Amino acid sequence: MKQLLQIAIKASLIAGKEILHVFNSDDFGVRLKSDDSPLTEADLKSHQVIESALLSTGIDILSEEGDEIDFEDRKTWNKLWIVDPLDGTKEFIKRSGEFTVNIALVDGQKPVMGVVFAPYLGCLYWGDESGAYKVDLSDDWINKHMDALMEELVPKQLPLRQPDVCTVVASVSHFSAETEKYISALKKKVGEVELVSRGSSLKMCLVAEGSAHLYPRLGPTMEWDTAAGQAVVEAAGGQLYDWATKQPMQYNRQDLLNGWFLAVGKDVSIDDYWLL
Do 23 and 149 share a structural domain? Predict the structure, then answer.
């Protein structure tokens, strides 16, 4: 396993332990950020351990919970880490297990490596030039020493399967009217459609592993919400395209707010599914 990938995986696992310690406590320490989105002690603790791990690489870091960095300062960053220490904070607060740690390595505005870890579910995904993989950790993974845990990783290459019925994954917290229109249009095109709801970056991971054909996101997200998941989707042979440009989503832009996008799995022609 390459060094940067190993560092990112270890960081995600350590962050996952910190997140679950808060998740299993009585007080999440919830507060509101300036944009009225929720922030918990788990977000902050996860950010701290990930930042500590990634600083050793000498690569610049753009994290949702880090300092706001002006574009004038980061526009020269050809390579950087993009991190969401706790993707799916709303799911976390509702005590749903569908939250993730997202760590992506971006080079030349392209996510070349991504790690997505769902600590409550014990599901670890990663993708790079060697392919995309999934590991289902043992139920007692949180109690294991990190070296032992890393040695026990038994990855399965993605995609694993592809359902017979056209399957679309959507957001649990952000199911929009536009998404409903898209699914209606898809039914007219292909007939039967199965809808699967997931939180956080697990939606992109379902596309990567072959459990879903499509993930239309017809609403706003941020770069740290998608960079790691896109890397996993692409490493599995799929695509994640910006809806406006019809090209792969790029990163470290001046505006970190993503527009609409569409993710498709391996062997699914993305050009057939621009339905709105």
Answer: yes
